Amino acid sequence: MALAESTPTRLCRQEDHAVMSSAYAYEYKVVSFRESLIGDALDSDKLEKVLNKHAEDGWALKAITSADVKGRIGPGAVEGLLLTFERPRG
């Protein structure tokens, strides 16, 4: 009887370990993208270059989020994008 009780416990621990291992199988990178300090329209050619550059390094685009991105000067922010990339840990 004690053996039957310990077997499911051991299986659950192995499953939990597999889930934890897979949770760390990827790494992520977040890049802010904005056109200028004054909030000009986003340039699709520049965005494409950023995406392709990261793809060359093994990063895959996971998400694009519209957000206020801090500018280089002063406390204000301009409309921009947060690009979230993912790649397998290696």
Secondary-structure-based class equals alpha+beta
Q: What string, H for helix and E for strand, traces the elements in order?
A: HEHEE
- Across the major sheet, the strand order is 1-3-2
Q: Estimate the global geometry from the Cα principal axes.
A: globular
Instruction: Specify the number of helices.
Output: 2
Which percent range fits the helix content?
Answer: 25-40%
| Strand fraction | 25-35%
Main sheet specs: 3 strands, antiparallel
Low-confidence stretches: 1-20
Q: Overall mean pLDDT score?
A: 73
Rg from Cα = 21 Å
Distance between the termini: 44 Å
Structure description:
The chain has helices at residues 2-23, 44-56; strands at 26-33, 60-70, 77-88. With 90 residues, the chain is an alpha+beta fold. The termini are far apart.
Any key phrases for this structure?
3-stranded antiparallel beta sheet, disordered N terminus, single chain, alpha+beta, 90 residues
Show the helix and strand layout.
Layout: H1 2-23, E1 26-33, H2 44-56, E2 60-70, E3 77-88
Antiparallel strand pairs: 1-3, 2-3
Give a quick rundown of the structure.
Helix content is 39%, strand content 34%. With 90 residues, it is α+β, with helices and mostly antiparallel strands. The radius of gyration is 21 Å and the shape is globular.
